[in-house]
Amino acid sequence: MSLLLNLAKEAEVEEKIRQMFAGEHINQTENRAVLHVALRAPKDEVITFDGKNVVPDVHQVLEKIKVFSDKVRSGEWVGATGKPLTDVVCIGIGGSFLGPLFVHTALQTEPKSAEAAGNRQLRFLSNVDPVDISLNLDGLQPETTLVVVVSKTFTTAETMLNARTVRSWIISSLGESAVAKHMVAVSTNLKLVGEFGINTDNAFGFWDWVGGRYSVCSAVGVLPLALQYGFENVSQFLQGAWDMDTCFRDAPFDENIPVLLGLITTWNATFLGFSSRAILPYCQALSKLAPHIQQVSMESNGKGVTIEGLPIPYPTGQIDFGEPGTNGQHSFYQLIHQGRVVPCDFIGVIKSQHPVYLKGEMVSNHDELMCNFFAQADALANGKTREELLTEGVSEALVPHKTFTGNRPSSSILLPALTPYTVGQLLSMYEHQVAVQGFILGVNSFDQWGVELGKVLALKVRKQVSKSRTEGGKVTDFNYSTNYLLNRYLQEKEENTETFG
Ligand SMILES: O=P(O)(O)OC[C@H]1O[C@H](O)[C@H](O)[C@@H](O)[C@@H]1O
């Protein structure tokens, strides 16, 4: 640890954290500041960007969300037919989806939040697959549904097609004028929101200095979550995130949770060369943590060059994946124990959101879950030797199969309970862990040029599919394999196309 702490010094992590909180343009390739911490700063905090304190702007939007969500929840805001809007469908993808879904999943079983949600429903439509539309609109009535279109850029192809599709679902049932009452937006691009036909009075802005994957504490997450759980619960979530932000900003490195986790993750992934990391919450309500951190981490640190543009001669980032324990144990843990070395983050909770104790059982249901949490880290660390197996009477033939090498790294994180506050802490902890790792690697953790090429090629394919569907003719403009697949795909006509209106 002391060598890693020296490395943090050498890599000027302290200075980089200072630059981040000072609103310097540390996302150099996009010339942007990285100020998601300002999204959860209390009112009296001063965080400046280009000479201006941004905290009042943040609180202005928060206040607007509070007023709007209170109105919708109380039934003061009604739909086109005069009915209250009890169900919310959020349309967004990537950072405009995964963070809000993670927090929603964590809160939906938390007693206080669940009580505040009552019979309201919150759903997320992300995939451009029409099956996702069908799943998300199933059972909903346009007259009681509020649609929130969430997109930082308001240009993301999947989100915009889904938004147009759901808009036609509303119009076909309630008429054009219903859009004003049934559709709102979250974006940094209010011009495009207006052009789409959403009243910009009902748009909730955020800023260029918030990266998409770091935007859950902006209106991207706060609006849907406040509509579902009430503003008070969401402000506790923000407070939790800010608590971890101040630990990151102020604590000495040997007591700084995100810094320590960042160092350990870098040690495992880059120095020891382990190519993956498992995020394993022993908590069903955290089932969407790994998919969210997957984007935060892999889109941030999966880079091939340094911030100066030089090739990096060592592995960067790691493949993040995960499932809640104990489910993972009955699926992929075999590989983790005896196959490749996969550093693990175990996340446990001391108090269950829903404790159950069955008379006559040795332990409560939550204790049973947590016994596994403690056992797994121990098994990975210590393993089981040949000698132990022989003492237990295991046959020579089976000894190699039953041997565990041990010496497999894991970190265990124990939360007092899963509440809006601790969910905020957990979110911020991972966001900053990823930043520290990027600071040490010397990459720009805040751009994502690697997602562009696929988008450009999809555009070319879209033009071809449209042309072939209308004019016919063979596809020849792609490589042999793609031509062949496209021609086979286009042989079939689309059937049973559903249209709204
Ligand atoms: O919020 P949007 O502008 O619609 O962007 C949604 C997503 O688009 C791209 O895939 C980016 O790589 C992601 O970082 C982003 O979260």
Walkthrough of the structure:
By secondary structure, this protein is α/β, with parallel strands linked by helices. It has three domains: 2-28 and 251-447, Glucose-6-phosphate isomerase like protein, domain 1 (Rossmann fold, 3-Layer(aba) Sandwich); 36-236, Rossmann fold (3-Layer(aba) Sandwich), CATH 3.40.50; 458-491, no CATH class. Helix content is 48%, strand content 11%. It is built from 20 helices and eleven strands. The chain has helices spanning 2-10, 13-21, 55-74, 98-107, 111-117, 130-137, 157-174, 179-182, 190-196, 219-229, 231-250, 257-271, 289-301, 333-338, 365-382, 386-391, 399-402, 420-441, 452-471, 480-491, and strands at 48-49, 52-53, 87-91, 121-125, 145-150, 183-187, 203-205, 276-281, 319-321, 344-351, 410-417. Strands 4-3-5-6-7 form a five-stranded parallel β-sheet, sandwiched between helices. It has a four-stranded parallel β-sheet with strand order 9-8-10-11, with helices on both faces. A two-stranded antiparallel sheet has the order 1-2. Helix 3 packs parallel to helix 10 (219-229). The chain is globular, with a radius of gyration of 25 Å. The chain starts with a helix and ends in a 10-residue tail after the last helix. 42% of the residues are buried. The model has no long low-confidence stretch (mean pLDDT 97). The chain binds 6-O-phosphono-alpha-D-glucopyranose. 6-O-phosphono-alpha-D-glucopyranose binds at residues 93-96, 151-153, 156, 159, 212-213, 299, 448, 451.
